[in-house]
Design goal:
The complex is a heterodimer of chains A (151) and B (259).
Chain A: H1 3-23, E1 32-40, E2 52-53, H2 59-70, E3 75-79, H3 85-88, E4 97-104, E5 107-116, H4 122-150
Parallel strand pairs in A: 2-4
Antiparallel strand pairs in A: 1-3, 1-5, 4-5
Helix pairs in contact in A: 1-4
Chain B: H1 2-16, H2 19-40, H3 53-68, H4 73-78, H5 80-86, H6 91-124, H7 130-157, H8 161-190, H9 199-207, H10 231-255
Classes of the chains: A alpha+beta (151), B mainly alpha (259).
Chain lengths: 151, 259
Amino acid sequence: MNRRHLAVLAVVIAVPLFTIGLISPVPDYGPQLETSVYHQPDGNLNEETPTVAYRNLSTDAQQLFDKANNNGPNSAAVPIDDAPTSWATLVSETAETNERYVRKNGKIYGVYLTWDVPAPSFGTVMLRLGPLLGAIGLGTLAGFLILEDSS
Amino acid sequence: MSILLVAKKDFQDAIRSLTLVAVVGIFTAFLAFYTYYEFTMTPLTTTTAFDLYQSTANAVVVIGTLLGYKSIAGERESGSLKFLLGAPHTRRDVVLGKFLGRVAVVVVTVVIGFVVVSPHYVMLAASPSVTAYVGLIGRLLVPGVVFVAVALALSAASRSTTVAMWGAIVLAIVFAFAWDMVRNVIESFMLPPDAGIPNWFRLITRFNPKYFYLDAQTLELGNAAPFYLEPWFGGVIVAGWLLIPLGLAYLLFERSDLA
């Protein structure tokens, strides 16, 4: 197989790779509301600190609270558009954190709300960028091979 | 005509030495990565084609400088300059021909990079604009061409490629990176916080060929802006950046000994 054949082979592989890179989905990096729930031991809170009864939370907020509380890392994240309105409006791009206290079954829990934009995982990035960079590399290799062959 | 012959030979040399393919490949890969980064990893602001300018301009400055520094010093060091001047070319032809040949490499690199990445841009941008994209390419070519001229002047002034290379590296660092850092330090610590940015500071910013386009219109200053912030003055700055280095390159090369 001479250099010109190798160059054609590189281009033949590069074209579908480039197409795969282009049509790979672009992940949604929209902002999220990250909710962390921690049990507050008695005496840690000032008596004047306002607390909200669990039963007074909206259904969405109750579900998010339970999800975070039952999760291993004590936190759960939902897209900001799907988050309970009463909590989602407490945080923003400029005011990233807020804190609330919820009373449930006689215990007080601290609920830390964080406005966050998740960083894409390496795998997600490479799903699109990997084929593109691979295609560009193969195109460059094809150029090298053709020029070397002609000189 | 002689100028074009030298330019053509220089461009063909770049193709034969595989410099062009390597530079195009590296630039295109960088542009693909950077386009992806700008359009998907900074989701909080609406990204436009022009947001690709800052870092891409730095890359183009580096490319222009690296392509230019060896143009004359390299040929002098290898001895091929004597052969080139043995043909019926004057030294002026060599300087201008080399300049045009290297500029052609920069133009081809930038254009191929942007053409290859264009489908990627169309898929990622919320509202892709052909005009903005083409305008960005045109704007990026200016610092690239200017830094070819500056590096060529260094190349004409140096007897060895090592000296020319270090000069080019220092220049690229100063104009691509250090200028912005110094500007930010002055803006943050030396200018009064509530007084607004003075026009002289905008002029200093504009003296960097990367920012030649920053005029009263771009900065939304209205009609009260001084003449040096009007759009035509950007042309004066670019012309100065081209004519002074090329003139110096010619004068230094004309007077230098080939040995």
